[in-house]
Specification:
1 helix; three-stranded antiparallel beta sheet; single chain
Amino acid sequence: MALVVREGTAWIQREDSTHETVGAKSAVTYDAGDWIEYGSDGSGGAFQAELYGAAEFSGEQQAARLARFLGQAGRP
């Protein structure tokens, strides 16, 4: 599963309380069933993100979509 940040800055918190800050054109991957929380404190402006779930696309389709979004199409 993946959360792709398209614009702005967001924070991600995982079940073990670890935090990370991600900016535009970043992707955070996690396993189906893992707990994550995400949001923004507004300091980086509003953020826009998309969630991609395992039920929607195969692993290969998810990888291809993320590669296109991140500008890595054709890279190994």
